[in-house]
Amino acid sequence: MEVTQVLFNAQSIDGTVRKNAEESLKQFQEQNLPGFLLSLSGELANEEKPIETRKLAGLILKNALDAKEQHRKFELVQRWLLLDATAKSQIKACLLQTLSSPVFDARSTTSQVIAKVAGIELPQKQWPELIGSLLSNVHQIPAHAKQATLETLGYLCEEVSPDVIDQDQVNKILTAVVQGMSASEGNIDVRLAATRALYNALGFAQANFSNDMERDYIMRVVCEATLSPEVRIRQAAFECLVSISSTYYEKLTPYIQDIFNITSKAVREDEEPVALQAIEFWSSICDEEIDILEEYGGEFTGDSDEPCFYFIKKALPALVPMLLETLLKQEEDQDQDEGAWNIAMAGGTCLGLVARTVGDDIVPLVVPFVEENITKPEWRQREAATYAFGSILDGPSPEKLIPLVNVALTFMLSALTKDPNSQVKDTTAWALGRIFEFLLGSAVDLPIITQANCQQIVTVLLQSMKDTPNVAEKACGALYFLAQGYEGEGESSPLTPFFQEIVQSLLTVTHREDVGDSRLRTAAYETLNEVVRCSTIETAPLVLQLVAVIMMELHNTLESQKLSSDEREKQSELQGLLCGCLQVIIQKLGSSETTKYAFMQYADQIMGLFLRVFACRSATVHEEAMLAIGALAYAIGADFAKYMPEFYRYLEMGLQNFEEYQVCAVTVGVVGDISRALEEKIVPYCDGIMTQLLKNLSSNQLHRSVKPPIFSCFGDIALAVEEYFEKYLMWAMSALQSAADLSTHIAGDDELVEYTNSLRNGILEAYSGIFQGFKNSPKTQLLIPYAPHILQFLDGIYMEKDMDDMVMKTAIGVLGDLADTLGNHASSMIQQSVSSKDFLNECLSSEDLLVKESAQWAKLAISRAISV
Amino acid sequence: MAPHDIRRPFKRAAISDQQKRRELSLLRQAQNRRDAQQQARCLASSILSLQSAAPESQPEQSDIELETVPEAEQESEAFSKDLDVRQASKLRGPEVRKWFARQLMLPEWMIDVPDRLAQDWYVFARPAGKRCFVVSSNGTTVSRQRNGSILHHFPSALPAGAKIRDGSGSAQSYCILDCIFHELDQTYYVIDMVCWNGYSLYDCTAEFRFYWLNSKLEESGACNAPSHYHKFRFSAVPVYNCDQSGLHAAYTGVVPYAKDGLLFYNKHALYQTGNTPLALVWKDENCSQFVIDTDGKGEIPSQQQVVLELQDDRKLVTSDDPPVLFGCLDGDIIEKSGLHTGNLLRFAIGDGGLSFVDGKLEKADLIYLGKSNRARAFADSYSKGFQLKSL
């Protein structure tokens, strides 16, 4: 096969030619994978071939080794590993050779392909000579080969995890990279490649950062690179500093003064991409210190694992003025551009983080700036002053802030309606929202909102909803937090008198002609949701009236015919907002007996609308409609059975949606709602549901986060259908058992531990539901054979010592359920288990009340099982 | 390698409302799942069997014959703290009384002012009347006094307290309230909430229990005037923080009931059965008409009395845990009066009174009066003796 021609054709503007070429490439790949990969790598290596085909050959090679979807990636990796060894070594030789090609694009693509191969092979202890041969390249004369090699090392560090490469090789990589960065390297491209490579290699440098001399050297080279005449190198060097600030926070003390000088010079004088990174360094330090100080807050011992060095607190007097200066560098109309990110925005964000880090100390440093600028004729100064004020509202104590807010509030309310500049109004509305978000309902004696100004606040916000879309959106946001501030007010809220007016204004906003592409409509519905969530019983009749209004809106979306794909997307989005709103209303009205009964009159109509929303699409279900149906099932209870014949197929469709796994997860949750609502009436649908759930569990295409809820759902179903679950017992138990085995011996990062705990929780909830479902049934003895494994599982997770309180609670509850249901059949097994002694005692003395409660239940159940 | 994106959210809330909706749904589902499980594990059925147990009407002689505590009894003692109503349902006669007596949280007498009184404690005026447990379950309500005897058996508006179809209360739900029945206005004053609608509040702090009590009791309609399905009115008592104004309000404030001292509850204390230093009682003539013991006819006996328990080595102890030794009984009195270990004996405090050294009882001048009323389930506590002395 003449691969060059096919690769050419694959880039043709003629669709048919392109399609044919793609088809033949696909066939080639399927029929002869080694041949396919060999000819691609040959094409890539061949200096005679045109750049376009070489580049595409590299790209296809890369895609033959990696994919976004986990299951596809796994497949590709397996195929590569099974490939003939001779072919693989030929391909790898081609790749290494191409690294010294004089053609930039060929080198650049190759370095990515090599990294992909390394990502597969190094963890398998294959291709051991790779790093050695790359490092020998670094000492070659042609600068372009050196550049490509450093780039390859950078990609390689991105692909493989640090534990795969031994320390000796890490040292050599770092030495090569840092040498490439240093000022003695004359070639700019080499320096840039080395600096970018260091960014990825930093994660490998744990040992080197613990050594004072090596760390000093690396830090010196990075700091020098921030002064390079080449802007891309300066930017890459600051990126390294940002990464170091989070990875090696605890090593920064000796360098922080120098870094402050470098960053503040960059923020004031350098080009924007560099200045943004320099600001990001301080934002990142804030992130670190906020995390550490939050840890401290949790306990009083003071000697947490991670010490806080209070870099922000110490830099404060110089840092705050620097950030305040950036606020004056706004771009015109930045608020109307969703993608905008500039130095004023970065500086303002950083100022907010600094306030959260240091609290009260920031107030005296910012207040003079606000006072000086807030009344200036130049809009930039007023906007900057307002932004500065808004950004320090989260962090300092209410005692410190409320007197200031009480002074500022009247001014801000007036600015929101009267300031001639739209950006100032936008920021004012945002800052008002921050006041309500962080300072309402605080325990301080001085209230911000009084009977006297409540009316004015509401009036101003509602008026601003008629302003330009971006200002109106922020006004909605402010109202959102105003409503939230009065959540749980009991009988009456200060907003009660305005409820009708607020709802009316929000509905008007949703119908604005210019609502178009902005987030305004979404913001209006979200605010409406929050207003409903936080409403009190006094306004329940008005919420009930809203049901018919929203239903009508939803009905209208269903009437439009023959939509373009763009319109269809808009329609679906609006339906999502309306279903979301109905969900909130259903949950609100369903939570109290009196309002629930009044709401029931609409149940049939609402369900009818939801079914029509589902019918708008052919293959997928609407997530928001599904969520709303869950709330409806909970409110209606057993009567929901009448909707099942029609609803069932959408339920099944939702469970089959692997692509949008959120939809699948939401649907699994709804199955739980329906089980609890229908109880034994769900039996006719169980075969279908259980089959699909078991299928989902065995699929490697489904996002793993959906699997724990599926197990919990087994428990919900078992509890609902009781001994009828016998039909599925064997299958469910075997799925549970293999998942249980997987979830005991794990070692990994926090994320994996968290996932494992959620998996365990799901498994345990399933066991609980099954045991309780079979209680008092003559078929209890069916469960006896599973008991030893379950007890072993409980013992196993107890021994691993990495469970969270949630798992602890569910696990000890399962022990109780097992004892309760199996009684004396299990007494000797239980007595032999570690769980019934050490684990139980540990839970009984737990600080967590839910754990303790479950443990007491277990103790009681065990004592009865043993005594019988 | 392209530069890395460092854009952060600007003027945006941290989570979207859609995410909030998802999370709230998940929370609701988790809560519903917990409810369903809780119901399956629920203890209501046992509460039910307890009500038919303990035939209070028939007089029993057994408590004098009651010998050393049998082993099974000790086991049930160990479980009693966990509201083991199943165990309790098997008990009969005097055991029922003992069991119930142990389920109540009993205040110690206040003999010194706790640290951080103003911050950590509540105070309220204790209604005068009969301390009892009110249990509503399966359409009926039963009140039992400290000694286990039934005071009333009646329908009430408490969840599961009357046989009316309201659709909401599941058959499994039940309530246990710690009350004082006030004769004069025939009202149950609820001083603590132990279980509500199937949920145990044993492990909740007083702060939470009182909050729950105030919001839920009113909501249930139990505070309404009596009606066909609601024979007695329930009422919460006004609870104050122990600061100066709160103390003043509790001490002098007008309440619809006759006061019997002040009760102090530590805000962080869980509902602990038996005597606890985390609940305290204070009485003086201003806030109680029963500042000192009265006899059956309401007359003040010439000498103050204490009830102590006789142990097998002739020692006399209080109901505290561990018991405090108040003295020893002569062997011949025991023989003459046919007393047994575990008997509760009434003593008058003689002119010698009680003398304390460093807060410890050194000497007590006790005069044996006889066996205590057999409806009594346990001895007085040490702190009562202490407060008597200080009067």
UniProtKB/TrEMBL annotation, chain A:
Keywords: Cytoplasm, Protein transport, Repeat, Transport. InterPro entries: ARM-like (IPR011989), ARM-type_fold (IPR016024), IMB1_TNPO1-like_TPR (IPR058584), Importin-beta_N (IPR001494), Importin_beta (IPR040122). SMART domains: IBN_N. Residues 21-101 form the Importin N-terminal domain. It is found in: Cytoplasm. GO terms for biological process: protein import into nucleus. GO terms for molecular function: small GTPase binding. GO terms for cellular component: cytoplasm. Belongs to the importin beta family. Importin beta-1 subfamily. This is Importin N-terminal domain-containing protein. It comes from Gossypium mustelinum.
Automatic annotation (TrEMBL), chain B:
Keywords: Cytoplasm, Nucleus, RNA-binding, Transport. GO terms for molecular function: RNA binding. Residues 103-279 form the Snurportin-1 m3G cap-binding domain. The keyword Disulfide bond does not apply. InterPro entries: Snurportin-1 (IPR017336), Snurportin1_C (IPR047857). SUPFAM superfamilies: DNA ligase/mRNA capping enzyme, catalytic domain. It comes from the Eukaryota. Its main location: cytoplasm. It holds the Pfam family SPN1_m3Gcap_bd. Belongs to the snurportin family. This is Snurportin-1.
